[in-house]
Protein: Ribosome-binding ATPase YchF
Amino acid sequence: MGFQCGIVGLPNVGKSTLFNALTKTAAAQAANYPFCTIEPNTGEVAVPDERLYAIRDIAQSKEVIPTRITFVDIAGLVRGASKGEGLGNQFLANIREVDAIAHVLRCFVDDDITHVDGAIDPLADAETVETELMVADMESLERRIAPLRKKASGGDKEAKAVLPIMEAALVLLQDGKPARMLETADAEEAKMLKGLNLLTSKPVLYVCNVDEASAGEGNELSQKVAERAKEEGAIAVVISAAIEAEISQLDKEEQDEFLETIGLEEPGLDRMIRAGYDLLGLITYFTAGPKETRAWTITEGTKAPGAAGVIHTDFERGFIRAQTIAYDDYVSLGGENPAKEAGKARDEGKEYIVKDGDVLLFKFNT
Ligand SMILES: Nc1ncnc2c1ncn2[C@@H]1O[C@H](COP(=O)(O)OP(=O)(O)OP(=O)(O)O)[C@@H](O)[C@H]1O
Ligand SMILES: [Mg+2]
Structure:
């Protein structure tokens, strides 16, 4: 299923509208009443990447195949959800399954669209949702800590290692801060924190759902969200879900015209998908040939054999080496052969950490 980004927020803020725009479908029911969505909607979305076309033009490939990530449109969360209010715990379980969260905040004013709390206030909304996630995390930690303490005092090594992280996360949460703000000492600790699978340790992207007129520059409400995000070291994107849903139904030419009239260079969705991709800690490498130019997704830090394994497990098992050309070299020199002649096609081995944009050709034994 790949990497999943969950669309989370209060009811009736435009989550399903956004999901439909992302997936260019009307697969999710979007309507003006809270709790319209109950069962999560899941869809794969192509990650827009201009580099694919630059490589294609050089390699003369017949086809371009972008890489994809999955978005999950999750039911709206309300105050008390962690105690089972609204549709409560079931939704929290849906959130637990995703790798990152796109938190949709209503930044449009429209008296015809119901707001569950009766007032438009994206910062208060963010607090409400975040509080529920934090309460759920605190309860989960409290439940787990006591038995773990017993194990640790009995000499269990794993319990001893993870306990301090759990305790630190709990203290942070009790102080009203999400677990993602916990400062871990090293990669090992970061991994343990991730392993706890807390709702608030997942990376968050704020999505400001604005009115049509604010789709380009945002508005006062989205500005406030941007400030909050900055304080947290998080990212906020401005998008008008309603408009994006319309744009996504147009063909490319009509899209460009429409975008120009509303003052956008590219669909807000493209920015959002890329932000989601970055948020997940993902990078892209390419393969290029006469048949296709293709983008592949790996997590940052993946070594060459692991990257090969994304294509086929045989490639990983029989990995010998990877001919590697950096994207900039590939494009500026004009492709594989010129890059080889210029000495820019490196042979990399098993320990090579693949970089974003690498154009790779794997040599392997089967
Ligand atoms: N930017 C926007 N401007 C105006 N109206 C919008 C905007 N985005 C969404 N809407 C409208 O808000 C209503 C709720 O949208 P949607 O069903 O997508 O919300 P939701 O967050 O999925 O709700 P639920 O939690 O109930 O599933 C719909 O009528 C939709 O057309
Ligand atoms: Mg919905």
In short: The pocket of magnesium ion (ligand 2) is lined by residues 15-16, 30, 36-37, 73 (CB under 6 Å). DSSP finds 14 helices and twelve strands in the chain. Residues 54 and 331 are 7 Å apart (CA to CA).
